[in-house]
Amino acid sequence: RRNGVEVDVYEQRAASHGIVRYAIPSFRISEEDIDRDYRMAKAVGVRFYFNTKVDDPAALEDVYDYVILATGAWGKGRSPVREGSDKVIDALDFLIDVKENGAKDLGRRVAIVGGGDVAMDAARTAKRMKGNPDVTIVYRRTEMYAPASQDEWDGAMADGVFWRELLAPRSYDGKTLVCEKQRLGDFDESGRRACLGTGEYEELAFDTVIGATGSTVIGDMFETWGLECDKWGNPYVSDAMESSVDGVYVIGDCRKGPSTVVSAMGDAKKAALDILDREELPNDFVRVEVALNEKDIVAKRGMLELPKVPEEEGQRCLHCSQVCRVCTEVCPNRANIAIHVDGFDREAQIVHIDGFCNECGNCATFCPHSGRPYKDKLTLFWSKEDFDDSDNIGFLKKEDGSYLIRDERGRILNVEKGALETDLDDQMADVILALEDQEPWLFIGCSHDRE
């Protein structure tokens, strides 16, 4: 709207901001902040039509040059249990109900099934219910593979929420949640290790079980609009978020399922820029270029710069998208180090030193990419015991010079001395060899049976 396009927003509810207003807990974002954002949109001339549901695409296509679908994902996902699903409360329903009607009596023991941001919101909200109940998150994988952002997970733990992993719920009778114990298998399509049932079961007593295993787009909206979709029902979109129908864009949660507010805003910006470009209108999404020379970027780190005038503000950027070493700087034990490795897009590669790490989580808290370096990065282990106690991708150098390796597929490999480059993925081998060459002191005392 700021750049000359007339914008109308149709919303079937009584107020703006969808999930943000109606479901995200107020301790994460206040009504005041939401209303301020709404007033800003109104101030630049955006027109809002509330309590208005659009069922007929033609009603909009005949009036507007472009249509952006941003309806969110309000539908229930799959049930977290095979038996007793009628006794499980949907997380989104729970969050909406609490925001509308206030605190509930959930009993003394509450389980949240799932490991994403909605699960964390539900857990933290449940913890604030009447009687301050004990709240436990039950997740089928491990913390490393939980899709929740690190700050959300940290917030739940700080609130006193308990965590149980490698448990897949199977049934709930209103009192007992029966879970099958899991083990991690090979990596699946999601990029995470698959869950494999062990055939062993554990019974957990809970007064309330809340399922947070995803939500869906309600109805057949995309079919109504004539959009081409993939086998999962997600619409095909271009890099600019335009669908298979000219001038119709799909953004946010309704595009590919529940995600973050920031991700939805990113989609919206791409669509807006494309529309402005097609209309040959300028845009005020100012992008200030900064030096891309790696040495110049590294030299800026640790330098304090006061805020500048807007057109120079970008000069303060540390360009983490190109050179990111935050985890090496915030770790009090220096358990993450940067080494130079040839053959990578980024010259500096991060290696995690298990023996220095006390798992304080500092690197995860400050990671601008929502990563967990102490879990995600290639790890050097100093003992077989530490290697076995972790599921990090990493390696242990034995006394005879050979290596014990856990690769990206979770396989445990024994690689003979001098065979790294032939028996191992080239990039992983290059990092290990570079670490030995540049930081040999880190390998002193490493052994297969080190005490």
Which properties best describe this structure?
451 residues, 16 helices, FAD/NAD(P)-binding domain, six-stranded mixed beta sheet, five-stranded parallel beta sheet, 3 domains, alpha/beta
Architecture overview:
With 451 residues, the chain is of the alpha/beta class. The chain has helices at 18-22, 31-43, 57-61, 91-101, 117-127, 150-158, 221-225, 253-256, 261-278, 294-300, 326-330, 362-366, 373-376, 384-388, 420-423, 426-438; strands at 8-10, 47-49, 67-69, 75-76, 89-90, 109-113, 134-139, 162-165, 167-172, 176-187, 193-205, 208-211, 215-216, 248-250, 336-340, 348-353, 379-381, 394-397, 403-406, 412-415. The chain has three domains: 8-73 and 216-278, FAD/NAD(P)-binding domain; 75-214, FAD/NAD(P)-binding domain (3-Layer(bba) Sandwich); 326-443, no CATH class. It is built from 16 helices and 20 strands. It has a six-stranded mixed sheet with strand order 15-16-17-18-19-20. A five-stranded parallel sheet has the order 5-12-6-7-8. A three-stranded antiparallel sheet has the order 9-10-11, with no helix packed on it. Helix 4 (91-101) packs across helix 5 and helix 5 packs parallel to helix 6 (150-158). The longest helix has 18 residues, at 261-278. The chain starts with 7 loop residues before the first strand and ends in a 13-residue tail after the last helix.
